[in-house]
Structures are given as structure tokens and as C-alpha cells.
Amino acid sequence: VTQKVGAFYRTPLDWLSFAYDFEWSNKGEEKNHVGLEISNQQLAARAGFDNDHLTLGGGIEVKAYKRLNIILDYAFVDDVEDEGLSHVFSWRFTF
């Protein structure tokens, strides 16, 4: 069983956000996740640490049609469990 608690804070600067969460399991594993995001209405740049591993990323949101938005996100994750560097893409459609 894994449990997680976290907090998100949008600073008085509308373009800057901060997030933190702490994760623990019944196996005694504990992880800290911390990140910053700089964004406007269409672009975002992100940086953080995922349990002592550097993460970097960004995203772009495009209005495709009326209420349909397409969001493309990218994340770079430093070496985790000796598997090398990871490049993660996600593609979301919001209505």
C-alpha cells in the first residue's frame, strides 16, 4: 500500500507555482517530490526533484476547436534505478 500527501501553492505571481508531496509505503519506502512551474496561458516550463533525481519539462496548450484543447507535455527524468535517462511525453485532450 502506498500513501501520498501533498500541497500546491500558486504564488502571488500568477505565472509561478510550487508543489510538494511526500509518499510512503507499507514496505518502509519514503519519497519526496518537489517542483516549480513557470507558465502563461499556453506555455509551461517545469523543474523539480523526484526523490533526489532531477526532473525538467515543459508543455504547450493549443485551442483546437471551440472547447477542445490539446495539451502536449514533455518531461526529462534523470537516472532512476540504473535505467538511464527517461524522456516522457503525454498528450491530453480537454473538452
What's this, in brief?
The chain has 95 residues and is mostly beta strands. 0% of the residues lie in helices and 72% in strands.
Describe the structure in your own words.
The protein has a seven-stranded antiparallel sheet, with no helix packed on it. The chain has 95 residues and is mainly beta. The chain has strands at 2-10, 16-25, 30-39, 43-50, 54-65, 68-77, 86-94. The chain contains no helices and seven strands. A hairpin with a 2-residue loop joins strand 5 and strand 6.
Unreliable stretches: none
Q: Structural class, from secondary structure content?
A: mainly beta
Percent range for helical residues? under 10%
Oligomer kind:
single chain
Mean pLDDT across residues: 91
Number of helices: 0
The tally of strands reads 7
**Main beta-sheet annotation:** 7 strands, antiparallel
Span between termini: 33 Å
> What is the global morphology?
globular
Strand content: over 45%
Strand order of the largest sheet: 1-2-3-4-5-6-7
How large is the radius of gyration? 15 Å
* SSE topology string: EEEEEEE
Structural descriptors:
95 residues, mainly beta, seven-stranded antiparallel β-sheet, 7 strands, 72% strand, globular
